[in-house]
Automatic annotation (TrEMBL):
GO terms for biological process: fatty acid biosynthetic process; oxylipin biosynthetic process. One of its GO terms (molecular function) is oxidoreductase activity, acting on paired donors, with incorporation or reduction of molecular oxygen. This is etheroleic acid synthase. Its EC number is 4.2.1.183. It comes from Selaginella moellendorffii (Spikemoss). Its cofactor is heme. Belongs to the cytochrome P450 family. Heme binds at C432. Divinyl ether synthase involved in oxylipin biosynthesis. Catalyzes the conversion of (13S)-hydroperoxy-(9Z,11E)-octadecadienoate (13-HPOD) to etheroleate and (13S)-hydroperoxy-(9Z,11E,15Z)-octadecatrienoate (13-HPOT) to etherolenate. Has no activity with the corresponding 9-hydroperoxides (9-HPOD and 9-HPOT).
Length: 475
């Protein structure tokens, strides 16, 4: 039997209950989605069972979907077992027990659903690495130009009399423009797609992952929302027209598709679908829905004094007239920038859940006890709790931008990428293929922000995912 440790902790039964058949899952889902919310749901059960490992019904808990019964791993001792490819099987658990139909991806199984033991996993992961490597020199300049287009648009909204600029659509466009221009090597605005790339992607992703969307993802009241999006999988047909338009655009990625065919043995058709999921879902969604708005929101809420401090560090390190050209050489001179990005990733992990199934019966250790867990059991971690584990992070619920300055060792405890932050992804693990790239772009985004602005302010109705720019002071 595999073990996640070798301590003398007591062995305990996994606490908790799945409740009555069907009703138990629906009760947990109701709490999770509507009554308690994603964080309180887990926190309240940690308190109730006095344990960070317990039984729970994950979403979607409806008979039309596979069995949602699983075990939550919510501390820094038990959670890392989910990152260990030798211990857990990640077949089809990208979004837990629910797996979107392959219809959404042209009939192909995309990388995110493949376990490391699937021979195609390494092929597709190496393809992903090459996509990033081959376009390496384009990313920063393209990001820079898309960044200025987005913030020029925000400023002109403000100067035309609006009291706030809605940044979400502008960041959606920013992310799509820089990724598409770098990877597809074509400006979407000059094609039939025009500025509709993000709209098509949002619909395709929204319908595909609707059953695992957070509560209040639609304007419908809770009960109606559950009926519409969580009763059964939604059909691809609803977004076929959107997906076809996206495919047409990705067919223009000649260089990447040639590489997929010639160097990785993919059919041209499969290369299009794999590339579209990689760029449209893994990359674009991560940036547009999480990384870019979250950083803007958190740095906005940290206020003018902090912004001046971070801006001074950045402007002293880079050439403000050429951020893209001077960025890499300046990185080591910007410890506060690096720490701030990582602290925002810790505070608001962009992807909250990780799942896996033990390859064999095994022992998992929390901080307090050992648990025997059966082969095949669905295990799930919530990063929202793991990245705020009070046994590892002091004042875990405070956003402390300096937290990681001079504290290299603490960085290993941030897991946003499905791997420790001190580790880089490989073809043999399930860590995000874009982990280092994402960190680079996140840092470069703040560099751009403070090369342009001394300070900025968001309006009070801003949220993590939808920041509104209210005012700014240009450098
Ligand atoms: C922008 C923000 C991004 C975030 C927050 C993010 C996060 C993640 C996470 C948490 C996983 C693991 C999912 C799981 O539990 O299995 C993952 C997987 C993956 N990500 Fe990212 N990602 C981002 C961007 C990117 C980019 C830019 C790429 C481009 C190469 C990328 C490529 C992948 C791939 C290929 C996988 C699957 C890895 C595998 O199956 O071995 N991601 N990502």
């Amino acid at each position: 039997m595999a073990s996640s440790g070798s301590s003398n902790l007591p062995t305990k039964e996994v606490p908790g209950s799945y409740g009555l058949p069907v009703l138990g899952a629906q009760k947990d889902n109701l709490d999770f989605l509507h009554l308690q919310g994603e964080v309180e749901f887990f926190k309240s059960r940690v308190a109730k069972y006095n344990s960070t490992v317990f039984k729970v019904n994950f979403i979607p808990g409806n008979p039309a979907f596979p069995d949602p019964r699983g075990i939550a791993l919510l501390d820094q001792s038990s959670f890392p077992v989910l990152l260990d490819s030798s211990k857990v099987d990640k077949t089809n658990v990208f979004t837990g027990s629910y797996k979107a139909s392959d219809d959404f991806t042209g009939g192909y199984r995309v990388l995110s659903y493949l376990d490391t033991t699937d021979p195609k996993h390494a092929t597709l992961k190496n393809f992903a690495f090459e996509v990033l490597k081959r376009n390496g020199r384009k990313f920063l300049p393209e990001f820079q130009s898309a960044f200025h287009a987005a913030f020029d648009a925000a400023e002109s909204e403000l100067s035309s009399g609006k009291n706030k600029a809605d940044m979400a659509p502008l960041l959606n466009q920013l992310a799509f423009q820089f990724l598409a221009k770098s990877i597809v090597n074509v400006d979407p605005l000059t094609t039939k797609l025009a500025d509709q790339g993000p709209t098509h992607l949002l619909r395709w992703i929204g319908i595909q992952f609707a059953p695992v969307a957070p509560g209040n993802s639609t304007p419908l009241p809770g009960f109606a929302e559950d009926v519409v999006i969580r009763t059964a999988p939604l059909p691809f047909l609803l977004v076929k027209a959107d997906y076809d338009k996206l495919c047409e655009f990705f067919q223009l990625a000649t260089e990447m598709l040639d590489m997929g065919e010639k160097e990785f043995g993919l059919s041209r058709e499969e290369a299009v679908h794999q590339l579209l999921f990689l760029v449209g879902m893994n990359s674009w969604f991560g940036f547009s829905a999480r990384v870019l708005p979250n950083l803007l929101y958190r740095v906005g809420t940290l206020g003018a004094e902090f912004q001046k401090r971070l801006g001074d560090e950045i402007r002293a390190a880079i050439d403000v007239s050429d951020p893209a050209g001077s960025f890499y050489g300046a990185l080591e001179k910007m410890p506060l920038l690096k720490s701030t990005v990582l602290e925002v990733f810790r505070f608001d992990p962009p992807v909250l859940y990780q799942y896996g199934r033990p390859r064999e019966d095994m022992v998992v250790e929390s901080h307090d006890a050992k648990f025997v867990i059966k082969k095949g059991q669905l295990l799930g971690g919530s990063q929202a709790l793991v990245c705020r584990d009070p046994k590892v992070f002091e004042e875990p619920d405070q956003l402390i931008p300096d937290r990681f300055v001079g504290k290299e060792e603490l960085q290993a405890n941030v897991f946003w990428s499905n791997g420790r932050n001190t580790k880089s992804p490989t073809a043999d693990d399930k860590q995000c293929a874009g982990k280092n790239f994402v960190e680079t772009i996140a840092r470069f985004y703040l560099v751009q922000l403070f090369a342009r602005y001394k300070t900025f302010e968001l309006s009070e109705d801003s949220t993590l995912n939808t920041p509104f720019l209210k005012s700014f002071a240009r450098n």
